[in-house]
Design brief:
Largest sheet: 8 strands, mixed
Number of domains: 2
CATH superfamily of the largest domain: P-loop containing nucleotide triphosphate hydrolases
Low-confidence stretches: 129-134
Shape: globular
Radius of gyration: 24 Å
CATH class of the largest domain: Alpha Beta
Number of strands: 13
CATH architecture of the largest domain: 3-Layer(aba) Sandwich
Structural class: alpha/beta
Strand order of the largest sheet: 8-9-7-10-6-11-12-13
Mean pLDDT: 92
Bound molecules: adenosine-5'-triphosphate, magnesium ion
Number of helices: 17
Length: about 400
């Protein structure tokens, strides 16, 4: 397989010197003149190494480096800074941003060659960056009562996050007995969790997860529930733990669609989640189920802020009032999802999540919610190359702000 190297420099002469030497070494090269181009290439191509200039017309080399390090898919790519800045402060700044090496201009091509070789060798023989492990944001969607919209929210949220932040999002359908996420996304059931359940957990690796996951055009990878319910017995708690841990090296977001039970696999997922979206519908049975779940979470010692209570108005008839639900559960609702029109509910059943119907107000709501449930690091910085979904969310937020200022 070819070795792919990115060279970023606004100076044509440097670009030419470096690229002509590396082409003759047999590397496949990608050349960028500015930061925006560099990040675009990095997100599109599976690079083996990047050589970055620091002073660039738009985004500087430090920022490119930081952005790459914060994206689990790019975090392990060796980065060499090649720059005219020679003072110690700049060198330290480069390492602080996550650079692996620093070469000052004017430089000897032989030295750059040697360092590139060393970094490529080291990257090929080292395990994934441990720092990337903690970065996946794990969201569990749960309810003890069935049929109230857990899968609908999980599927739309996974699509929403993938569309907002681009890198693939993993949707794990942990409802092994009857999960329908693959159907809701209309992806062919080529592989399922049963393929993972058949092998010892310690033999599962990131590559296998990628092979078993079904890819949806929106950028969501789905680990689908088994075809036959009896296959669910193959999947043990250790498989689930292993997959959740490994997902951290490939995915920025993991959305877990959970069954309505406290089985060992469900409990493992709930424990490992960063946030639990506990769904409740406006009826008494559902509120009781939410209350049971909250009590168990308390017994398990989950911090209160890990759990968000969501009221899903899955019925069109009158239901319990928000205040009553909050009083019984002694917890505020984070979000109320309104009743969705039948035509849109049908869309889910037909394999096209509502959120992809971007013209519809319901899609806008789900997109805004996906942003709301995005991790802080993502929300804190304006993306270099914002996705259309991000732009829509940001436009709506601006409009809301303007309206608020008027009134
Ligand atoms: N806000 C809503 N408005 C109208 N219908 C809804 C809403 N939320 C969910 N539904 C509908 O409720 C039904 C059940 O939803 P879904 O399959 O997502 O629930 P679940 O909790 O995952 O159920 P299961 O027990 O089958 O896993 C679906 O037909 C879905 O379209
Ligand atoms: Mg479901």
């Amino acid at each position: 397989m070819a070795t792919l190297i990115l060279i970023v420099d606004d100076n044509k002469i440097t670009r030419n010197i470096v690229s002509s030497a590396f082409v003759s070494d047999g590397y496949e090269l990608f050349i960028a003149e500015n930061g925006k181009e560099a990040l675009e290439i990095a997100s599109r191509v599976q690079l083996n190494l990047a050589i970055l200039d620091i002073g660039l017309p738009d985004i500087d080399g430090y920022q490119i480096c930081k952005t790459m390090r914060s994206d689990p898919r790019l975090a392990n790519i060796p980065i060499i800074m090649l720059t005219g800045y020679t003072d110690i402060d700049n060198r330290l700044k480069a390492f602080a941003a996550g650079a692996d090496d620093y070469i000052m201009k004017p430089f000897q091509m032989e030295e750059l060659r040697a360092r590139v070789k060393v970094h490529l060798l080291r990257a090929a023989s080292s395990p994934p960056h441990p720092k990337t492990k903690a970065r996946t944001h794990r969201i569990a969607v749960f309810s003890l009562r069935g049929g109230i919209g857990v899968s609908t929210l999980a599927v739309n949220l996974a699509v929403g996050l993938a569309q907002l932040w681009e890198p693939p999002t993993l949707l794990a359908d942990l409802a092994f007995v009857n999960g329908q996420d693959a159907l809701m996304l209309d992806v062919k059931l080529r592989n399922t969790w049963a393929d993972l359940g058949k092998i010892p957990p310690e033999e599962i690796d990131s590559e296998l997860i990628e092979r078993v996951a079904l890819r949806h055009a929106s950028g969501v990878d789905v680990l689908a529930a088994p075809r036959r319910s009896e296959e669910s017995e193959l999947i043990k708690e250790r498989h689930v733990r292993r997959v959740i841990e490994l997902a951290a090296t490939q995915y920025k977001y993991l959305v877990m669609d959970l069954p309505h039970d406290f089985s060992p696999t469900t409990l493992a997922a709930l424990e490992m989640a960063d946030v639990i979206l506990l769904l409740c519908a406006p009826d008494l049975a559902s509120v009781r189920c939410a209350s049971n779940a909250l009590n168990l979470f308390k017994d398990l010692g989950y911090p209160d802020e890990k759990i968000q209570l969501i009221l899903n108005w899955n019925i069109s008839a009158n239901g319990l009032a928000r205040k009553e639900i909050e009083k019984v559960l002694q917890k505020s609702l984070t979000v109320v999802i309104p009743h969705l029109p039948d035509s849109l509910v049908m869309a889910i059943t037909m394999g096209k999540p509502i959120i992809l119907d971007v013209e519809k107000p319901e899609a806008a709501l789900l997109e805004d919610l996906s942003y709301f449930w995005s991790k802080k690091e993502d929300k804190n910085i304006e993306p270099v190359a914002p996705t259309p979904a991000w732009q829509r969310v940001s436009e709506r937020a601006k409009r809301r702000q303007q309206e608020q200022n008027k009134s």
